[in-house]
Amino acid sequence: MKTYIGKKALLVVSFGTSFGKTRAKTIDQIEKDLAEAFPDYQMYRAWTSKMIIAKILRRDGIKIPTVKEAVEQMLADGVSEILVQPTHLVNGIENDQMKEDIRSYESAFASVSFGEPLLSSTEDQEKAIQAVMEEFTELTEEQALVFMGHGTTRYANSVYAALDYMMKDLGYSNAFLGTVEAYPSLDTLLKKVGELRPGKVLLAPFMVVAGDHAICDMSGEDEDSWRSRFEAAGFTVECVMKGLGEYPGIRKLYIEHAKAAESGL
Fold first, then answer.
1. What is the dihedral of CA 253, 254, 256, 261, to 10 degrees?
2. Helix intervals (H) in the chain
3. Is 88 a catalytic residue?
4. Among 244, 18, 248, residue whose Cα is nearest residue 117
5. Which one of 3.40.50.1400, 3.40.50.12780, 3.40.50.300, 3.40.50.720 gives the CATH number of domain 8-117+247-263?
6. CATH hierarchy code of domain 122-243
7. Alpha-carbon distance 47 to 13, whole Å?
8. Catalytic residue from among 88, 150, 213, 257
9. What predicted TM-score, i.e. pTM, was given to this entire model?
10. Is cis: bond before 184, omega within 30 of 0?
11. DSSP state at residue 105
12. Do domains 8-117+247-263 and 122-243 have the same CATH topology?
């Protein structure tokens, strides 16, 4: 077994997903890239969704640790320095709770550092847009690209409207971003896309994984799904089932955040 000098650990915290295929291409790949970027750190994983953790254990017999369980394991392993990198998009409820859980153990460690969520600054937002749009180079002027974000009731939700505006400002006039649970809403998107009158609408998740929201709320057969609503409005729709964790530029941004936290920037 490899000896980790200084007993340093990198804890990667995700919301989690019960969909194995998207997990392998997103959360697992983010963790792999981070492990390669931090070879002197012992890697640990934690998920914040206790519901998904319970489902995975019940269905697959796989135990994914909660944040507190991961921290307790690090203590048992003799870790003294923790670097935490969340795969969360914004400083929302999940990220706040994660920090609170870890800080309750803070006195037991020599140091605890937190990397920022993906979209924590204006610079982050621009880099994220460019990283995603690099994957849609074949998008034509006759098409509209509509991203589905999750949304939050917290103040951090303003980032989604900012991203939608920034896409236009960066020259992507036919790209839109809305949310499942907040603003901009699907109704707002239907109105804005309708004004553009594209020949085809591409729907893609603006979430780390292409999980339940992408499968059900975005591309599902239900009449209230985004695909069904756009089709009912007269558009030809194609769904791109690709989570943000599949984009190399997005994974690179998480590494940048972890490096910044490590160096105390």
1. 150
2. 20-25, 27-37, 50-60, 67-76, 93-103, 122-133, 158-169, 186-196, 212, 226-232, 248-263
3. no
4. 244
5. 3.40.50.1400
6. 3.40.50.1400
7. 6
8. 150
9. 0.94
10. yes
11. T
12. yes
Place of tokens 């460019």: 130
* The two three-digit tokens of residue 212, written as one number: 């339940």
User: What is the token pair recorded at 139?
Assistant: 């998008």
Residue listed under structure tokens 């998920």: 47
**Residues 182 and 153 sit within 8 Å (Cβ to Cβ):** yes
Instruction: Report the chain (265 residues): mean pLDDT per 10 consecutive residues.
Output: 68 96 97 98 97 97 97 96 97 92 96 97 97 95 96 81 96 96 93 96 97 94 96 97 97 98 88
> What does 200-239 look like in DSSP terms, one character per residue?
EEEEEE-SSS--HIIIIIIT-SSTTSHHHHHHHTT-EEEE
Q: Is 146 left (phi over 0), alpha (psi -120 to 50) or beta?
A: beta
Angle between helices 93-103 and 67-76 (to 10 degrees): 30
Domain limits, the chain: 8-117+247-263, 122-243
- Report how far residue 265's alpha carbon sits from residue 259's, in angstroms, rounded to the nearest whole number: 9
Residue 165: what residue type?
Answer: Y
